[in-house]
Design a protein that fits this description.
It is a single chain. By secondary structure, the chain is α+β, with helices and mostly antiparallel strands. Helix content is 42%, strand content 19%. It contains 7 helices and 11 strands. The protein has helices at 2-33, 84-92, 126-135, 155-163, 168-178, 190-201, 224-242, and strands at residues 42-45, 51-56, 59-64, 70-71, 76-77, 82-83, 106-110, 115-121, 141-147, 209-212, 217-218. The chain has a 5-stranded mixed beta sheet with strand order 7-9-8-10-11, with helices on one face. Strands 1-2-3-4 form a 4-stranded antiparallel beta sheet, with helices on one face.
Length: 243
């Protein structure tokens, strides 16, 4: 029995060394052939035999076992009906809600405010305006709104005026629900620059992007029922974790 365990351990160690050597070869070959891949952060096997994931930051590529071919695209699991690339990027760019820089967000409280959601929005975003109308029917929630001016040349100006307004929440509501721009105003807008930097780091590519208290992320507008469902799920998971 002891001999069997010893042989099994040795075999596993050999396989581990083989995998490490394989990944090192891929890393070395791609770096030598493609200058943009000189700093690869990670090489790992995918569920598809012979295909390896190559990660540079949060950018994903795929290659064969020899590093002779490189694919930039999405990998789907047709049996599980899942986009494996999307799942992996979501994992890499996950945001811990407790680490969100809430000082750089507007805070809007409805009802008791017990439930929480963070939203990245651009004042020129049409989908955001639809989302905001739906959110008026969601009660007992605190919305941490990050102004994220990425869509139009005047998005930064509108965001500045909202951020610098005496009543930030009111200025935002007027802009999104009534198409009434905030009056021109000036103040320290470094928070907006930090929001843009944060979004770049975590690949927030469009608005609205929602982040719920359990870390769930949605990169498009959703309706009232879906918001309620996700808030309930986030609250349920948070309660379970606390227990």
């Amino acid at each position: 029995m002891k001999l069997t365990i010893t042989l099994l351990a040795a075999a596993l160690a050999t396989l581990s060394l083989g995998a490490d050597a394989q990944e090192a070869r891929i890393r070395k070959r791609l770096a030598a052939r493609i200058p943009q891949m000189s700093k690869i952060d990670e090489v790992r096997r995918t569920p598809m035999a012979g295909l390896y994931e190559v990660r540079i930051g949060t950018d994903l590529f795929y290659t064969d076992a020899r590093g002779n071919y490189v694919i930039q695209g999405e990998l789907f699991d047709s049996k599980a009906r899942r986009n494996l690339t999307e799942d992996r990027i979501s994992q890499l760019t996950a945001v811990d809600f407790s680490e969100l820089p809430l000082k750089d967000a507007l805070t809007i409280v409805r009802g008791d405010g017990k439930r929480r959601v963070a939203v990245f929005e651009d004042p020129n975003c049409g989908y955001c305006k639809v989302f905001e109308r739906d959110m008026q029917r969601v009660d007992n929630v605190t919305v941490h709104l990050f102004l994220y001016p990425i869509l139009s040349p005047d998005s930064a100006e509108k965001s500045r005026n909202i951020w610098c307004a005496k009543d930030q929440a009111g200025a935002w509501t007027d802009q999104m629900l009534r198409d009434k721009p905030a009056a021109a105003a000036n103040c320290d807008t470094s928070a907006l620059q930090r929001n843009l930097a944060f979004g770049k780091k975590y690949k927030i590519m469009g608005t609205p992007t929602l982040i719920f208290a359990n870390g769930t992320r949605v990169s498009h507008a959703i309706g009232t029922q879906e918001v309620e469902k996700r808030l309930a799920e986030a609250g349920s998971k948070s309660a379970t974790a606390a227990n």
